[in-house]
Amino acid sequence: MRWIDQISRARGIGDNKLPNMTLNWSPLWLSLRVASIATAISFVIGIYFAYILVNRRFLGRDVLDAAVTLPLTLPPTVLGYYLLVAIGQRSPIGQAYQWLFHSPLVFTWQAAVLASTLHAIPLLVRTARAALLTVDHNLERAARTLGASEWRLFWRITLPLTRRSIIAAVVLAFARSLGDFGTTLMIAGDIPGRTQTASIAIYDAVESGDTMTARVLVLVISAVTIAIVWTANRLENRAAA
């Protein structure tokens, strides 16, 4: 019965030993860090794009609108390939990054931030744009006649009137950044402890048969996502009230 003893030792149940129940939480913390940074970046870029798409008329506006929406429609692998070409070591962006930081941009957690940002920006732009369209333009015109600059107008009138909807958009953008998989895998890779986010860790756990890790990470991500969606819905309902 030697083979039974070998299986028992391999599973950790021989000699009164329990299996190793240690769970590596680093992918979850990395995902939270990547999502937080990506959400902050997408907030600045997304609000700017939403504002100019609502309040400006210029040549190429429709092209910009389509380009901003494109990451929502492209398959993640296609978007990931474009990013590999754009930030690879042979590209101007990749060479500039390597010259500044003495390391390539691809296969780093910073690349994961870039992937999550590109997926979060379209969602934030579309939601914020819908919110900005509800602002009474008479208030904005009155503020302009009183000498308010566009910057002051945005922070003192436009943003306060749409803050709940924009916060809801930011919350949804965070959820989208937290769950990115395909594009992140393409440009950041799957390096444990460095670029392995929670979504990629779940995939690896399923592939390797580590059901405990997969189940725990799935439950945690699901709980966080449900809380985020509930918060966003509450904010949108209050904004509509």
Describe the 3D structure.
With 241 residues, the chain is an all-alpha fold. Helices cover 77% and strands 0% of the residues. Mean pLDDT is 84; it is low at 1-20.
The DSSP helix count reads: 11
Report the structural category: mainly alpha
Reported CATH architecture: Orthogonal Bundle
Q: Specify the overall morphology.
A: globular
Distance between the termini: 72 Å
Number of strands: 0
Number of domains: 1
What's the helix and strand layout?
Blueprint: H1 2-11, H2 26-55, H3 61-73, H4 76-87, H5 92-101, H6 109-132, H7 137-145, H8 150-178, H9 182-188, H10 198-208, H11 211-240
Helix pairs in contact: 2-6, 2-8, 2-10, 3-6, 4-9, 6-8, 6-9, 7-8, 8-11, 10-11
In short:
Helix content is 77%, strand content 0%. With 241 residues, it is mainly alpha-helical.
Essential attributes:
MetI-like fold; 0% strand; globular; 241 residues; disordered N terminus; mainly alpha
